[in-house]
Write the structure tokens for this entry.
Amino acid sequence: MTVSVLFVCLGNICRSPTAEVVFRDRVRAAGLEEHILIDSAGTGDWHIGRAPDPRTQDAAATRGYDMSSLRARQVSAADFEQFDVVLAMDDANLVDLQAMQPSDSAVTLKRFLDYAPHTSIREVPDPYYGGEDGFAQVLNLVEEGAEGLLEALRERL
Ligand code: 4NP
């Protein structure tokens, strides 16, 4: 059995690619890389084809994650056929995805942090226009969400 997961934020250069690399790391550590397929995308089109934001890459590198090979892409209607689980980084992303979701789609569409076990925070804040702290906060929340998501997906395998 496999389950496929798509992380979605606005630009696909900060939050969702961070979720992609962190979750891939946890899935690999659990020996589940052949069972859990992972990708990320953005609702917006401004950064298509670009590498993650340098501030995001730097923050991730301090914790041992290499994001340099990722390139941004935009979420599309086809993603609702190709993925089992689509996870929004914030409520605005969720609303945008709900508007795109075909009526016959069986996708599980939720906020990523709905899976985070030890926090009541339910949105990963957009770090793009903020300071350095925002990027570390994204990593903290993403690492937390990844833990809970892995446990939840194990039950689908
Ligand atoms: P992300 O961050 O959605 O986490 O990738 C952003 C990246 C770019 C912009 C906004 C948020 N932007 O406005 O260009």
